[in-house]
Design a protein that fits this description.
Layout: H1 2-17, H2 26-63, H3 71-82, H4 91-98, H5 101-107
Length: about 110
């Protein structure tokens, strides 16, 4: 019985909204659909911007946490000496980084 009452209530509210206008406007429906699509796209874009900004803040915090800490250089030297990694400043590695469009766009070049 409760579900029947809720259905009747919904129908009454729908009818009361349409009392002034006997027919619905297809233009308003189209406008609502376009608005929802636009807002969905904007929401995804805003989320992407937020994630990017958060990643940049996190990276900056890690990178600037202790400027005197040179442990990363010791780690790279040990990897090169052990032969696990070739020279990281080789021509091919630099060429790949310099031609990486996404990296350059993120850096603002």
């Amino acid at each position: 019985m409760a579900s029947l009452k809720s259905i009747v209530k919904k129908i009454r509210t729908m009818n009361s909204q349409n009392t002034y206008f006997g027919a619905t406007s297809p233009i308003e429906d189209l406008h609502d659909k376009q608005r929802k699509i636009f807002l969905r796209g904007m929401s995804k874009y805003a989320l992407d911007l937020y994630v990017r900004k958060k990643d940049i803040k996190s990276f900056t915090k890690i990178a600037m946490s202790n400027p005197e800490d040179n442990s990363q250089e010791d780690i790279v030297d040990s990897l090169i000496k052990s032969g696990k990694v070739s020279d990281i400043i080789s021509g091919s590695a630099v060429d790949r980084l310099s031609s990486n469009k996404k990296l350059l766009d993120d850096l603002g070049f």
